[in-house]
Amino acid sequence: MNLAEALDVLPELPVSHQNRRIFTMDTRYVGREHIEEGEPIVLAHIPGSAEIFRFSPQQWILVHFFDGVRTYDEIAHLMQEETGAEYDPEDLRNYAQQLEELDFWYKTPQEKNFALMQKLRDKRKKQKKARSGDLSRIVVAQWDADALVTSAHCYLTFLYTPWFTALTLVCFAFTAYVFFDRWGQIGSDTLRYYTFTEKTALDLAEFWLLFCALAFFHEAAHAVTCKHYGGGVHSTGFHLIYLTPAFFVDVTQAWVYANRFQRVVTMVAGIWTELIICSFATLLWWGTPAGTFVHEFSYKVMLITGVAVVLMNLNPLIKLDGYYILSEIVGIDEIKERSTSFVSTWVRRKIFRLPVEIDYISPRRRWFFVPYAFLSGLYSYLLLYAVARFSGNVFRNYSPTWAFVPTILVAVLIFKSRIRKLGKFMQTVYLDKRDRWRAWLKSPVALASAAVLAIFLLLPVFTDRVTGPFILEPVNRAVLRTEVPGNVIKVMAREGQSVTAGEPLLQLQDFDLESQVASSHGDLDIANARVTQAALRYKDYGPAEHDRQRLSTQYKTLDSEQQKLELRSPIIGTVVTPRPQELQGMRLNAGAEAIEIADLSHMRARIFVTESEMRDIRLGQTVKLLYPSLFHSGMGEILTISPSVSQLEPGLEPASPYKGITSPAFYMVTVSQSNPNGELKYGMTGTAKIYTVRRSLAAVGLRSLRDFIRRKLW
């Protein structure tokens, strides 16, 4: 007899011991039967541990026959008597070994210690990799809080009574009423409150402290509810989800001890608790005077526990409450992993022709798995991109010119695990297709393709283009301005009216001017009579004639001013002034803009080009004008190039503002466009493409690289 084994003080060598060992099932296992995806399963669990094992009913019967004494032949015979199914003893041995790798079987303390030593190094490596390589979840600290949750549950059983549930529903109704009544204020303030780039360091510290405090109550609600339905909470801690701090609790034991409704309640408990806090904060904000600390603090709690947190927690695309609630509703476990694995294996098999087996998913569930996998993956990448973009904005505040360097480094760090997986996948594809590719590269088809590619890269077949916004305006237009002040007594022009040159459009009236004209006309008549009398008498003719000429000049000047009271069109065109009838009865001072006339048959596009692209612009180059509102384009040639900087027209600013030390300067080039049918409108905007010179694709790439180096390292 082996003395060490008899005394049970030294561990056995693992390989030799496992080869001759008959496994024993731990009698402490508790099994509960559930229905998942329409099939019965048994969830097994040892009270006080965090591991949960899933078996079919037949497998659950099988593991009970492992008592450490029966051989595999005896177990196979007992299973045939119990279920009528025949088992190969070697298959039972392999199955038992698989369960051993999952630490299912009973172990002595020495065996546990030895197994722990075997796995400790690999576990540390995995934890280190998880902490630094995957930003979707980084565990910072973890502990067992089951005893604390058990103590707290004794005092919180009233939370699950019908009267308290009814009370919370009344509070939720009050909160919903306040949010609906003040949504214009609360909705905008919620978006502003979650805009971190506008917060000071003190605001950020206050936000994260408040966020973590509320997250603690959120996770505590999950833990207490799990305990209420018989489960244990042996894993609690603090982690980062996409660098966002949060608490977490492991309530997987609810899947053993609770039914489906109770599991959904366990998942909803966190959101329910935050809504209770939000209702209490809403009541305080509603009932306290403005300007007090309680009023302002309650409003911040409302913003952080209101719509934003509820929607975030109910989001089923990441592993938060909404994800697990969706899993319970549809009855599918591990939706994210299974859907992603199905799409991944399908792509590898069908598109890249790799020798992998496609995970089996029933046809009626594929319509759900495929879009969910794409949406979940897209959302995860958008979150990672948001983290990288936020870090880029922070660096840009310190060094706008060189902010791209740390931004790229942060992006590489964030997407490191994804990049590594992509590299391994491409390596797998290469190794699988290597021989086929090498054979193809030696074929005449490959040589011909390489020659065509070289010609395509080196020949100047690519026309370089410069794009910029443009605005349309008539080539000929005139703005009628009043030359003398007066009151508008008649408006003959109508918006959109076609007019001819010299056609009257507006009539003014000035009583002072009319009085002066009448008085001057009377004085001129008297002077004419005096000249006639002086001529008959041959006396004082010279002074009389001089006075008549003076009065005649004065009358002509005043009459000319009176003629200016009538505004006439100087060109053939269209009235483009909106609602000119509103000028009726108004008093217009000299120089006031009255009516604008434009010849819409011939238009001109004013294109704005940034200073960095002006080096390629020449007169006569072909321009393509894209009209988004007309769904077609027009062609033309550059007629003029402005020699100085031009101001960008309102409405043509880029959608995202330029970021850097200074905004770029714009220069203007013009292109004419005929408009015989009038479909081009005054003020219409669009995008222009200016075709500059022909270059090869290789030249385009080298030029971009050269410009970048010269711009940054001059």
Write a structural description:
The protein is α+β, with helices and mostly antiparallel strands. The chain has five domains: 3-127, no CATH class; 134-331, no CATH class; 332-435, no CATH class; 477-595, no CATH class; 600-713, Beta Barrel (Elongation Factor Tu (Ef-tu), domain 3). Helix content is 52%, strand content 18%. It contains 23 helices and 20 strands. It has a six-stranded antiparallel barrel with strand order 7-16-19-18-17-20. The chain has a four-stranded antiparallel beta sheet with strand order 8-15-13-10, with no helix packed on it. A hairpin with a 4-residue loop joins strand 17 and strand 18. Helix 7 (146-155) packs across helix 10 and helix 16 (335-351) crosses helix 17 (363-398). It is elongated. The model is unreliable at 1-20 and 655-661 (pLDDT under 50).
